[in-house]
Structure formats: C-alpha cells, structure tokens
Design brief:
Layout lengths: L1 H17 L3 H11 L4 H22 L1 H9 L9 H6 L5 H7 L14 E4 L9 E4 L1 H17 L8 E5 L8 H11 L1 E5 L5 H14 L3 E4 L1 H14 L8 E4 L6 H11 L3 E7 L3 E6 L6 E3 L4 E6 L12 E7 L10 E9 L12 E8 L3 E3 L5 E3 H11 L3 E10 L2 E8 L5 H15 L4 E6 L14 E3 L2
Parallel strand pairs: 3-4, 3-5, 5-6, 6-7, 16-19, 17-18
Antiparallel strand pairs: 1-2, 7-8, 8-9, 9-13, 10-11, 11-12, 12-13, 14-15, 16-17
Helix pairs in contact: 2-7, 3-4, 10-11
The protein binds zinc ion.
C-alpha cells in the first residue's frame, strides 16, 4: 500500500513542490530505449553537435582549447568531433572555472566533489535539468533490475547519510524509503541488526557496491540466515567478479544487475534483465573507446573510455577521459532495446600493475582470474609499492590449504616473471576507501 502511495501520491506531490520533471523525463527515456539503434545514434549526433557548439560559445576553456585545435564553432561530421582535444582530470583541476558556462551563476548550479580515490579529486557542477535527467536515466536502468518508483530499498553504503532534519526524515519515510547497512563496519552484530530491520521493513531492492553485497552474502550464509529475498539487486560497482555474482545469486535467490557510471557524468552503462553486456546510455552521452594512439578500438578490444556529456550545460565535459578501461561490442542484445552494448568494464587505468620490464598487467582482471582458478580465497587485493615487489593480501576461507598457497605463488610468478618478489599476506578483511568502496589492485609505482 505504501509503495503504491509513494509511487502515485507522494512522489508526484514532492516533484510538484520541487518543480521537477523527472517523471516526464523517465517516460521519454522509457520509450526511447526501444527505438532502433540508428535512430538513437542520429539523435545522439544532433545532441553532440549542440553540446560541443554550446561549450565553444559559452565556456572560456573550450573556446580557447577548441580554437587552438582549429575548430571554427561548427561540427560538420564525426571526423570533426574526433579531432577535438581530449579532456583529462588534470585539465579539469587546472581550469575548473573556465569549464563553467557563462550562462549560469555558480550558485545556481549543483555542486559535487569526486572521491579522488585515483589521486585526483574534482569539483563538479551540474545544472538542475541535467540532474533530473540523470536521475531519470538511473531509474530507467533500475527498472531493468526490477525496481520502480516508490519501492523500498536497502542500501549497502559506507558512512550512509543520516536523516537529521524533519524534512529529511519525512522524505525518507514517504519517498526515498531507504534502509542502510553501513559497510564500513560489517560484523555479525551489524548484520544481525540489518536483518532485523529488513524483516520489519521488507525492502524490495538491494543496492550497493558489489563487493559489499558479496561480503553480506557470506555473512548470511555463515550465520544461517536464509530469508533475505529482494526482488532484485543493483550493484553500482564497475567490477562484479563471476564467483561473487554466483554466490550473491545463490544467497539472495535473485539476479544482480551491474551498472557502471561515475560522478562526473552519471550513469554510463547498465545490464538489462538479460545480463548479456551493458547497454550504453547514449541518450545522454557519447561513449568512445579509444586506443592509446587516439584511434577507435574495434569491437572486443580493450580500450580507454572517453565520454561526452550531452545534457549538462552548467559544466560541459567534452571528450573526457574517465581513466577506466572497457571493451566495446557490436553484438545486439536479445532484449530488443536499441541502446548499443559494451561487453564489460575491465578496470581503472590506475589499477594496472607493472612488471619489472615495464609492461602492464590489468590488476583487477588478474584478481578475477585468480579467484576463479584457485579455490579457498574469499577476497584478494594486490598492492604494488615497488617495481620488484608485489603484496598479495588474501582473506582465506576454510578450504584454503598449502596447495592453494603454492598455486597462488605459481600464478603470480607466471604473470610477473622471476624478477619480482611476491609476498602473500593473510588478512582478516580488505581495507576500504572512506566511502566504503574497494580497490582490488593498487599500484603505487
Ligand atoms: Zn538488453
């Protein structure tokens, strides 16, 4: 009953009060996902042209940078687009204000700051329409996971927000309807309290970082608690390891839907109910997969992800290097949506480890492969502080034995060669970032 009320009464009322258009945007996005790919690409191209020309006219940074690259203010074709210079995190740091549109006052824009777990924290600004559109795009893809407006959500979050004012409490009671598990301190006591609240509130959807959901699943299994049954699980992490996905499905008896995005541009891609790749959010973004030399990668080839925001006029990001790697796809999804697919995200550029000869190893892929190949490992993290040294932090389970340790040494010797010392450290848990996220490979060299 409260779900119905929240969806059809409180949510529209709240929106009316805020003057928001999210529901209208959601209706539009819900129908555009079924357009054919060509139509969507044409629409995307028109929006890209508008966004680039807008940035050139209204943002001092782009005016100077694009003019320097020979751009005259009109995009004639995609080749013109691909000639535009790339934008890096460093560029945003150095030119923050220059990226803001002169049409907005800074105080009218919404501000956020990225966590900076890759070493560079950024101040970002959005206009309100952009914010509403991003929320709508998230809700569209959340629906693929079985969520709908007004449903109760259990969020697994590091340092969750506290509803301290009456307005926030009301909003949470009637509208957001979220219960939290603080993932910074998961232990049997906090899991028991969470399960108790779950049984009382009975949420529909579980939401959080995939690795935190995995840890919760392990606790529930160990503690013999088998009645946590959401309709769907949404994981916000870029990496969802296959062994983790399997356990999560088993314990909660439902699908887990992985999605990929970032603070800078919102939702980039999400799995649909078929789980055969990630649908790219090309309504709101141009997503390019580029090789090191700047040329376009072929389907199936791992490459650097570069995004252009088509909806944020407050602080446009044009050809922004997210510093993540992904694999484009030319498959079509059997679900029939026209939004093109990406195969997967393979990690962050910052997660690459180094061999003594200077070549790179995709740290997160290595973690996934090892978890799959060697039984007895619950969690693993690779930390490289020196070129000739690698620390492998392992959380064991009861089936871990000498053979597993031997296999672990062999695996890393094979990948890194003999010139590197591998130290295996057994730890009770992996460290998290302040926001409760996990990094599985950290290279400090
Ligand atoms: Zn699909």
């Amino acid at each position: 009953m409260l779900t119905w009320l929240s969806k059809y009464v409180f949510s529209p009322l709240w929106e009316f009060k805020d003057g928001a258009h999210r529901r209208q945007y959601l209706r539009e996005l819900s129908s555009s996902q079924w357009l054919d790919t060509d139509t969507l690409c044409q629409q995307q191209w028109r929006r890209a042209r508008d966004a680039v020309e807008y940035a050139f006219r209204h943002c001092p940074y782009y005016q100077e940078r694009f003019a320097g690259a020979g751009f005259d203010g009109t995009l004639r074709d995609r080749r013109d687009f691909r000639r535009l210079p790339l934008l890096t995190k460093r560029d945003i740091r150095a030119n923050g204000d220059g990226l803001l549109s002169r049409e907005f006052r800074r105080e009218d824009l919404l501000e956020t700051r990225t966590g900076g777990s890759t070493g560079v924290a950024l101040n970002l600004y959005f206009d309100e329409r952009c914010q509403e559109l991003r929320n709508a795009a998230s809700m569209r893809s959340d629906r693929w996971a079985g969520r709908d407006i007004g449903m109760k959500v259990a969020a697994l979050w590091g340092n969750p927000p506290v509803a301290d004012t009456l307005k926030k409490k009301l909003r949470n009671l009637l509208l957001d309807r979220i219960i939290y598990l603080d993932t910074i301190n998961i232990d049997e006591g906090s899991v028991r309290r969470f399960v108790h609240e779950w049984r009382r509130e009975n949420p529909d959807i579980m939401f959080g970082h995939s690795h935190s959901i995995y840890i919760l699943a392990m606790y529930l299994r160990r503690m013999g608690l088998a009645d946590i049954r959401p309709r769907g699980i949404i994981s916000t992490s870029m990496m969802l390891f296959e062994p983790e996905r399997r356990l999560i499905k088993e314990v909660f008896d439902c699908q887990i839907t992985n999605r990929y995005g970032c603070e800078e541009v919102g939702l980039i891609a999400c799995e649909c109910e078929r789980h055969e790749g990630f649908h790219l959010n090309i309504d709101h973004l141009v997503i390019e997969f580029l090789r090191e030399d700047g040329t376009e990668a072929a389907p199936g080839e791992e490459a650097s992800i570069v995004v252009t925001d088509l909806i944020n006029r407050g602080m446009p990001l044009i050809r922004y290097r997210v510093e993540d790697l992904g694999v484009p796809s030319d498959r079509t999804c059997p679900c029939g949506r026209g939004l093109p697919l990406m195969e997967r995200v393979t990690g962050r550029q910052a997660d690459f480890l180094k061999r003594p000869d200077g070549s790179l190893v995709a740290g997160v892929s290595l973690v996934e492969r090892t978890l799959t190949a060697i039984p007895g490992i619950e969690q693993m993290q690779l930390v490289q502080d020196e070129l000739h040294q690698l620390c492998v932090k392992v959380v064991k389970d009861s089936s871990f034995n000498e053979v597993s340790e031997h296999k672990l040494h062999n695996e890393f010797r094979e990948v890194f060669g003999a010139g590197i010392t591998v130290e295996i450290q057994y730890v009770p848990a992996l460290e998290q970032t302040r926001s409760g996220k996990y990094r599985f490979a950290i290279c400090n060299v």
